[in-house]
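Lecture 7 notes: from sequence to structure.
We start with the chain below.
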Amino acid sequence: MSTDALKTWDINTPELPSKVEETLACPQFRILLVGNSGVGKSSLVSSVFNIKLEDIDISHSRAGKADITHEYTSLDNQRFILHDSQGFEAGSDDNWDKAETFLRDSTAKDVQDHVHAIWLCILAPREGARLLQAGDEKLLSLAQELHIPIIIVFTKYDLLVNEQYYMGAETVLSETEAARRAEASFNDRIKLLKAQEVAFVKVSTDRDYPKRHDTLEELTNVTRKCLGDTSNVIGTNPSDENRNHKAEQEKADGVSVLWTTAQQISASLKVEASISEGFKEYWRDLGKNAFFQGHTMAQCIFRIHDDILKVWNFGVSQKLLLQEDFFKQMIELVSPLLVGHDDEVQQDDSAQALLSVLSSASTGFAGDPYSLIAFGAAGISVVAIKFFYGKYQTLPLTARYLGAYIVDLTCVLHRLFVETILTDPPRLLSKELISSVVKSYNDENLWLVHNRISAMNFMHNYEKKIRDLIDETISRQQSYNLLLPPGSISNPEGEAKCCCTIA
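Predicted structure tokens for the same chain:
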């Protein structure tokens, strides 16, 4: 292989297509929010999708802002499209007619133009307030008819908690007691709704409300559950029913994964989707994977890396995680697994040509985004270079190497997610933060993780073992964060932001 060939060599090959993109039903999750002005729709969308309020300024007080067909999008998160409708108070028949027409038309189109979910936003019911308007009941019936998942979102739940403080002013309620009374009051006011088996969630986007994130995570989980429910798909005969159900289930799976990539609240959903998607194909039998045969390890690792990133969706910062620096850092993490295995690593023509070039006088690879990974100056051994740029080999060593890469990358991304998107306010990813997180993971978890990987039997229950190891590593990291002083890189706010348990 010539130097020119090495300069232009691309480790992304169409022969290993993205399985996440194949699963996704369409590029963007389309959601309809219904509710009156002031109910908190803008802040809800901003919080769940991690976008700027000005990107979805849906005030109904100005002309042109209540067009249900208008598509609100954001460059900060390109995995969703928002539609907005005013509520259906008495005398708002025109609003209802527009909403009904829009929803019926959308279901007649291709899946990318379907409304994938509806959030009916209503203020959390306080003393004397009416729960649902007649138009809300009609929307619930229409959504059921059209098989569109709908969730009633009771917004500004913190006001209901504050109401309990006010009602108990003479006795000065504790925070726990006010929360208990608010919960009891809420349940009493929605007891008729519970009897209808309608999905509902109470939320607060007030950053001063201590359970804000918990309520938003519950909303993302309930939405995900509703998207996966295909029990209302009915065929005309048993064979039709089976075919219809299978097709609907595949579509529901794709929309569910799309929802997971779009939402920016639940790290648990992203971890679970990464694992589930991986084990559909590329993560199976890592030591003897038929899909990887004939490809270089670099190409195999890129496909694993890219598919996991697609699920996490770091928005405008995603590009930093596809650049040479991050690849180099991740390869450095797993390279120690190759120590002592020189005799198992075959050296094909591609790897030999690369090593020959590297041994010459400081050859530059300006056109190859992965060149720095190959340089010995990066701290990566010759055997690691041979392994990375050589062909995939059917070896237990290969399974351990790829398994470690999957666990390391997933845990590092989880930590980056917690320390950027889940901070208050959210902050952008940076090269400095990435390096700090990788170093912390290396110092705190790498030895334990790789020891577990090395002891694994990849022939039995491998998927469960990987899930368990990721879960344990993330849980251990969350516990460790509680011991760190406020302001440290892993605990910038002085508290653990999220504890991820894989379902």
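Points to note: The mean pLDDT is 82. Residues 238-262 form the longest helix (25 residues).
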